[in-house]
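Hey, I'm writing a tutorial for new members on how sequence and structure tokens pair up, and I'd like a real worked example in the thread rather than a made-up one. If someone can provide the structure for the chain below, I'll link this post from the tutorial.
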Amino acid sequence: MATAVKKTISLPPELARDAENIALEEGKTLSAVVQDALRLIKKTRLKTEFLQMQNYWSKKAKEKGILNEKDLQRYLKK
């Protein structure tokens, strides 16, 4: 069985109401709504980081004239 760490958080009233409404609408606990939100932000951050790395390495490849698989194979054979 998974263990949970209990934390106390403070939310502005409007955000607290929004979270409670989401919990009611989705039939979840407030804790589950917060967990979902944290998982989503983690996923979003990872995706952003991945896209930034992809952009960086794509730029580096273009600087070396690597635009497709054929270019990459030719570059790697050097």
